[in-house]
Amino acid sequence: MISEHSSSIPASSGPIILIGAGNMGGALLTGWLKNGVPGSSVVVVDPNPSEAMRQTIADAGASHLTGVPVGITAGVLFVAVKPQVMDAVLPPFKAILDAETVVVSIAAGKTIASLEKNLGPAATVRAMPNTPAMVGRGVTGAFANARVSERQRQLVQNLLKVSGPVEWVPEEADIDSVTAVSGSGPAYVFYLVECMAEAGRKLGLQADLAMRLARETVAGAGELLHQSPDDASRLRQNVTSPGGTTAAALGVLMAEDGMQPLFDAALEAARKRAQELAG
Ligand SMILES: NC(=O)C1=CN([C@@H]2O[C@H](COP(=O)(O)OP(=O)(O)OC[C@H]3O[C@@H](n4cnc5c(N)ncnc54)[C@H](OP(=O)(O)O)[C@@H]3O)[C@@H](O)[C@H]2O)C=CC1
Ligand SMILES: O=C(O)[C@@H]1CCC=N1
Asked: Taking the complete model, does pTM exceed 0.80, yes or no?
């Protein structure tokens, strides 16, 4: 159970059961532990976590199980397994829910209706974090169904915000769009680094130098975006001298057949895939 004394995390009515301690589940667990959630209030269910995760769990005094806990009721059931295995994994967990439990799923696409098919009607939040959560710099979109009380919403908000800001959306369908923008978004940025490095190599730079330049440029631009009060458009304009080199490059990227139509198509594809994973 999380006590009122845990820094910013309000009390839950029972332990947090985390199903799946992979990339995202592990990142959230690490964030909870750093932000005052006592390890003793967390039960991690994962048949085969990494050695590093086993160590984290053990060091925190959290419990590790390979299957459904027996004899306890979940305060929060936090679902962080792949959407494709959820229908096989979830049904036995129905036994550890009661009227006070809030279910949180971070799985792409999986609808609340699909979760309820496996778990029965429950206070449920669909959330979509992203991998910068691993360094406490993520952003999460979240939707709560009508069964979620104000207390549960606060509790979930505090559990999610250990990895960065939380943006609540008014419609469940919005979560699929959030997934397309920020859930998958870090991959687009990493690919941008790859593209910049490859283009630099084609201009004659050593491949590893081009990669270092591209990587530090994107990391530095991200940090500037994070720290500056200016919006992205203003920051772009600050780089762009009239008649200069940046304007020449942006003439290509911002052409009618430049990046915007590519991003429109890419994000539409991501949202469509989320919708296909719904069932
Ligand atoms: N990666 C990302 O950028 C994001 C992912 N998500 C969502 O988060 C969820 C998890 O993704 P991610 O962390 O990347 O995936 P991972 O594969 O890294 O993590 C899933 C974990 O669940 C474990 N697992 C498998 N079967 C079970 C089971 N029966 N009971 C308990 N645990 C089990 C896996 O073990 P094993 O490896 O041994 O199979 C693994 O440790 C997905 O639903 C995804 O859509 C959301 C936002 C961003
Ligand atoms: O690719 C995926 O399906 C997951 C969800 C968002 C990021 N990774």
From this structure: yes
| Residue 5 belongs to a domain | no
Q: Residues with Cβ within 6 A of ligand 1?
A: 19-25, 45-49, 80-83, 85, 89, 106-108, 128-131, 183
Residue after which a domain boundary falls, among 119, 142, 171: 171
**CA 227/CA 73 separation, integer angstroms:** 42
Side-chain half-sphere exposure of 100, counting CA atoms within 13 A: 12
Write down which residue in 171, 196, 214 finishes a domain: 171
Name the residue range of residue 195's domain.
185-276
| Half-sphere CA count of 269, side-chain side, radius 13 A | 8
Ligand nearest to the CA of 68: 1
Q: Which ligand is nearest to the CA of 43?
A: 1
Position 230 in a domain: yes
123 known ligand binder = no
Is the pLDDT at 1 greater than 70? The verdict is: no
In this structure, which residue's CA is closest to atom 5 in ligand 2?
Answer: 108
